[in-house]
Design goal:
α1 runs antiparallel to α2 and α3 runs antiparallel to α4. 16% of the residues lie in helices and 26% in strands. It is globular and about 100 Å long. The chain is of the alpha+beta class. The strands form twelve sheets. The protein has a six-stranded antiparallel beta sheet with strand order 4-5-6-7-10-9, with no helix packed on it. A five-stranded antiparallel beta sheet has the order 1-39-38-34-33, with no helix packed on it. It holds the Pfam family PQQ.
Length: 851
């Protein structure tokens, strides 16, 4: 069978193949030696030496090179099984390249001295090719899917229509069943619709019935993140740069638009407007026709603060007015939004004209009293919350620029007049207004995300962020330490905290609260309790009594590391809270979890891991070497929040599962690199949210590798999945099912889309919506798909490819007896999905006038 013979022809195949294998071996040997010095895996050094020798023998035309390569391959299979078990994704970088190279080695073997026959060589190559094809085919099988043996909760036969199920969008009134009246559908933020026309049995018949384009396409830092409202027969939404738009809910035709003219320089990290607020002025005495949101006048209107236009319609009627305390008011129904340049805008819901009785001709500058505010430093990216006639707003403060950035003050304004009712400046706890000449305290934690509220209790629940320098705490003041990364329940009548619950003590990881708290009523041994569910970036979920803030399930304070940079010593909290109800967090990372396309980039990630500081979730920041932050600041849960089906008693949570690779940079080094606040020199230097942020006024800047990606391939160092979606039993906190979320179709090495429908679990931003029809609607992932998931099984039962990324939360509504699903596909620069300006509506087949 084997014989030694000379082979005519060119020697270049064995030189080329042997050279590639030798180069691979040399790289692995050098890197493997380095990894061993760091205490890492022993595999790479001997494997690299063996491959180096095998490559040399192949170049010399000796069959021993092929046999030695086979030994390395077999040894690698054994090592991979020992390290990885049956974890599919771990086998890819360990064996993928070696199996691929084994195929030409088998084909070359008959041409080597002492090699097998050509038939034998080809047979071995065919077997290897089949093995590779089979392993590749396994990628199409979802990995990491878990289902509980616990029976899935069934819908209650008793009405769940309570304050917590559908909190009011105005005093005493809940959204109509077919409406979506606030960012989270209601201020309870359940994102649950009682509509059930679309089910798992018919969802595959969904079709696009209209598409609307906003015309707002930022050239950089795009990311609209918008969830429209639906009230009456009209949709209300904002574009990436705050253009307010009203659409016919049935056809998608534009009724009016109002452009507040936000300048490009005011875009912070992202040109994002997540949503708007709807408010109906309470009437006393006689009123003119009210809340005919679908009827608009013929006229157009402009003002000094923006530009409004309305569609031409034969159904024109005069603007509705109402009487409040004997005074006639325009804008009986109004849309209120916050802008990227720090304004609150109020326009008539029927016409798009500014409400002239609100603030200064329809607008309020929330930066008054903040002192110096540079463009982009103070922005409102989330929908305001209106409780008992008070507009409550926080704002985004551009992270990482200055320790003493503008204040994170929370403000309350009269929803009719725009007059400030109160301001909560945590450094002045006994005061709710400024004295002449004063400014709000700079550098305090802010609320950049969306609040939820209980209209009856008069409480608004604020997910608070951190002080402006997220990763350095030495100069923080006691109130900042107390309220940062806390849920604060504020009394809307006084503007003072009723209670607060902190999820991180002395946060130096940017683990600010991004998700809304979701209001539900839960059953306890003492009876039904008005509660809320609070998700966090660490993955922990807390269930609190929303009247008092007391946990309804256990919270354990566990010891954590307390080291870090020298100026931070003594400031680290020795304990951190952990929820005993539920967590989305996975186990701690090990070197074995490092990943890559090939053994080389996996080895590089192993070297980085072995050389970094990592002591679990609360690893202290360091300056002498990188530290691993896991999960990273994208969560766990982020601004998309969770959805709760109160009839079934099920929480739906999508989440991220990625580390960050961080290092603090001493001030002198940061200055040498030219890192400066945006208003001085930074401009678009550095990256987003922590990559090259100066943190001026502290001893350290911060460099964050978000997602921990290698610069050459762009792949993440941690193995997949990078995101998931989970169903959780509300009553017990038990996982009902959990699965990776997102495919590889728009993801791949070097930024090249693979177009493969492999469920790999991608990063995701944006939340879910659930319906009484038993479906979860969600986009969020980086594969540019919108999906319907069967809430009972976790299986995707429908999907559609979108023309742009959809890092936004969908909404569901009904009009004319037909149920609609709407998603904003605006793309996202940070998530690297393509920019768009599409608002897309889906419905089951039927009569429609779609555009």
């Amino acid at each position: 069978m084997f014989r030694e013979r000379a082979h005519p022809g060119s020697h270049w195949p064995r030189w080329l193949l042997g050279g590639v294998i030798a180069l691979l071996g040399l790289t692995l040997a050098i890197g493997g030696g380095w990894l061993l010095t760091l205490g890492g895996s022993w595999y790479y050094l001997p494997a690299g030496i063996a491959l180096l020798v095998a490559g040399g023998l192949l170049m010399l035309g000796r069959i021993g090179g092929a046999w030695l390569y086979a030994v390395v391959l077999l040894a690698t299979i054994g090592w991979a099984a020992w390290e990885s078990g049956l974890d599919y994704w771990r086998w890819i970088p360990r064996l993928g390249l070696l199996v691929v190279l084994a195929i030409p080695v088998a084909l070359l073997a008959p041409r080597l001295r002492g090699g097998p026959s050509r038939k034998t060589g080809w047979g071995m190559a065919a077997v290897l090719a089949l093995v590779f094809a089979g392993v590749f085919a396994l990628a199409f099988v979802p990995h990491g899917v878990t289902r509980s043996a616990t029976p899935f909760p069934q819908p209650s036969t008793v009405s769940q229509r309570t304050t917590s199920d559908d909190a009011a969008t105005q005093p005493g009134v809940a959204p109509a069943p077919g409406d979506w009246g606030a960012y989270g559908r209601s201020h309870a933020a359940t994102r649950f619709s009682p509509l059930d026309q679309i089910t798992a049995d018919n969802v595959d018949r969904l079709e696009r019935v209209w598409t609307y384009r906003t015309g707002d396409l930022p050239e950089k830092r795009w990311g609209a993140e918008t969830t429209p409202l639906k009230v009456g027969d009209t949709l209300y939404l904002c574009s990436a740069r705050n253009i307010l738009i009203a659409l016919d809910a049935r056809t998608g035709d534009e009724r009016w638009r109002y452009d507040p003219r936000v300048a490009e320089e005011n875009i912070p990290y992202t040109a994002a407007c997540r949503g708007v607020a709807y408010y109906q002025v309470p009437a006393s005495g006689s009123t003119a026709p009210a809340d005919d949101a679908g009827e608009v006048p013929e006229a157009s209107a402009t003002s000094g603060v923006g530009e409004s236009s309305t569609a031409d319609t034969s159904a024109a009627r005069d603007t509705a007015v109402a009487t409040l305390d004997g005074v006639r008011r325009d804008c009986a129904t109004r849309i209120i939004e916050g802008t990227l340049d720090g304004r609150l805008i109020a326009v008539d819901a029927r016409t798009g004209r500014p409400c002239t009785d609100f603030g200064d001709n329809g607008q309020i500058d929330i930066t008054r009293g903040m002192g110096e505010v540079s463009p982009g430093m103070v922005s409102i990216t989330s929908a305001p919350t209106i409780v008992q006639g008070v507009i409550v707003t926080g704002h985004q403060v551009l992270d990482g620029q200055r320790r003493m950035a503008p204040s994170g003050v929370i403000q309350g304004f009269d929803a009719v007049t725009g007059q400030q009712r109160w301001a909560w400046d945590m450094m002045r706890p006994d005061r709710t207004a400024l004295a002449p000449g004063e400014t709000y305290t700079r550098g305090t934690p802010n609320m950049w995300t969306t609040a939820s509220a209980d209209e009856e209790l008069g409480l608004v629940y604020l997910p608070m962020g951190n002080a402006a320098a997220d990763y350095v705490s030495a100069s923080r003041r006691p109130p900042e330490m107390e309220y940062s990364t806390s849920l604060v329940a504020l009394d809307v009548t006084t503007g003072r905290p009723a209670w607060h619950f902190q999820t991180v003590h002395n946060d130096v990881w940017d683990y600010d609260l991004g998700s809304q708290a979701t209001l539900v009523d839960v059953s306890t041994a003492a009876g039904t309790v008005p509660a809320l569910v609070l998700p966090t970036k660490q993955g922990d979920m807390y269930v609190l009594d929303r009247r008092t803030g007391q946990p309804l399930h256990g919270v354990e304070e566990r010891p954590v590391p307390t080291g870090g940079v020298p100026t931070e010593e003594g400031l680290r909290s020795p304990i951190q809270p952990y929820s005993q109800y539920h967590t989305l967090a996975k186990r701690e990372l090990t070197e074995r979890d490092m990943w890559g396309l090939t053994p080389i980039d996996q080895m590089i990630c192993r070297i980085q891991f072995a050389g970094a500081s990592y002591e679990g979730m609360y690893t202290p920041p360091t300056t002498d070497r990188h530290w691993v932050e896991y999960p990273g600041y994208n969560g766990g849960s982020d601004w998309g929040g969770i959805a709760i089906d109160p009839q079934r008693g099920v929480i739906i949570a999508n989440y991220n599962d990625m580390p960050n690779y961080n290092i603090l940079v001493p001030r002198e080094e940061a200055d040498r690199r030219g890192w400066a606040p945006r208003d001085e020199a930074r401009g678009d230097m550095g990256g987003a949210e922590g990559a090259g942020d100066p943190q001026a006024g502290t001893p350290y800047a911060i460099d964050v590798n978000a997602g921990w990606r290698l610069p050459f391939t762009g792949l993440l160092c941690k193995e997949p999945p990078y995101g998931g979606i989970r169903a959780i039993d509300l009553a017990t906190g038990e996982t009902l099912w959990d699965r990776p979320f997102g495919t590889a179709r728009k993801n791949g090495p070097f930024g090249i889309p693979s177009y493969l429908p492999i469920v790999i679990g991608t990063p995701n931003n944006g939340g879910p919506a659930v319906t009484a029809g038993g479906l979860v609607f969600i986009a969020a992932a980086t594969d540019d798909l919108i999906r319907a998931i069967d809430i009972e099984t976790g299986e995707t039962v429908w999907s559609d490819a979108l023309p742009a990324g959809a890092q936004a939360t969908p909404m569901v509504y009904e009009t004319g007896g037909r149920q609609y699903l709407v998603i904003m596909a605006g793309g996202h620069h940070f998530m690297e999905t393509p920019v768009g300006d599409y608002v897309i509506a889906y419905a089951l087949p039927g009569d429609h006038d779609g555009g």
